[in-house]
Each structure stands twice: as C-alpha cells, then as structure tokens.
Amino acid sequence: MSDWHTATVTARKLAADGLTDWVLDIGGTPLVGSHAHPGQYVQLRLPGGEPGMFAIASPPAPAGTQWEFLLKDDGSLPAALLRLPLGARVEVKRPEGPGFPMEKARGRDLLLFASGSGISAIRPVIAAVRQDRGAYGRVTLYFGARTPDSFAYQHELEQWQADGVKVLCTVSRPGGSGWQGLVGYVQAHLGEERLEHAIAFVCGPADMVQDVMAQLARRGVPRSAVFLNY
Known about the structure:
230 residues, alpha/beta, Elongation Factor Tu (Ef-tu), domain 3, 6-stranded antiparallel β-sheet, FAD-binding FR-type domain-containing protein
C-alpha cells in the first residue's frame, strides 16, 4: 500500500503579500482523522515529483476533510502548487512531527512566537486555546512580518484578541509604510512580564527560532519549556 494519497485542490486566495491560503480536500482517503496535533506538517508533491514539507494551518478535526495550508511564493514546488487549477490532484502523506504539546500548556501562561509563514503552524494552537480558553493562563502571540502587508490571517487577529489571545504584531522593515505599531523582531518585544513559569511554542526561520530561544533563556524560561513543532 502506497504511503501517498491523492487529494484535490479546492480553494486558494491571497492571504498576504507573498502568501496564499490554499486548501486540499482529503475526503475519501485514509488521511481523514490523521491530523492529531496542532503544528504537525505533511509532505506534498505533484504526482511523481519531488516532495516538500508544509505545516497544516487548520486545526485537527477527527472527521474533517479539508486541510488548509499557507503557501509562500518561494521555491519551485510552492510555485508549482500555486499554479494548479482548482480540482487538480496533489499527492499527500500522513501528518508528521509531534506538533505542539497542548496538554503541557494547560494551567500555564503560553507564549506563541511566529514569523512570516510560521504562523501557519501556530494558528491551530490558537484554535485549540479559543475552544478551551479557561484552561490556560495568559496567552500572548508575538507575530513578526517583514512589512505591514505581510501578515497572514489579518482578518482573524481581532477575533483572536476578543477570545483572550493578546496579539503583538511587529514589522522588521516598515520602510515608508506609515506603520504605527511595533518595529523589529519578535524576540525584542518580550516586555517586563514574569516568564519563569511560562511555556513557549515557536515557529519560524531557524535564526529567528534560535534568537527567541536565547532571549527566553535569558528571561528564565528553561529549554524544557520551549517547544518547536519538529
């Protein structure tokens, strides 16, 4: 039995500058119900082509038949996937990686760090928090992008705030955009709050991840309380 399963492209729309919301229908395949943990990722490929890894941007759903992704217009495979017409077929493997350990975050303050397309792996975490908000302490999302037009899920940020997730957006290259918010990288905006008992979930480019981990360590967050999704 093949490890690869055939899914169908059902929707796509611009999510932000250089980022696209992209949806696969996995109905009728053994993949239904296989996405168990926020932050997991899958291998995708065009039939017979070279695969790539992509985080699932939608929350786990036992009977769900749609997986959402946030594709960055960067690299040959994402570019090829973005050119596919609706109804086209893509090959997919079962979700991989441990995802983020939601059970370890219960009863604690939760720090979420995402940069650029890394928000795709954090979005399902936020969905889980919103479903059971009382189970967690303070929840803060530190969300970084290059420019003000590069934030995916902008239309959702207000709802996340309303549901008890503090959202801090920061731009590394504001240029002449007139951006009035935070400037710089996410790790520069931890503020003065006590972090010793917090737990952190981090997703983004390798240098950002390393810098966030170093800053958290300086603030008393042990490495055992910092989780990546791989």
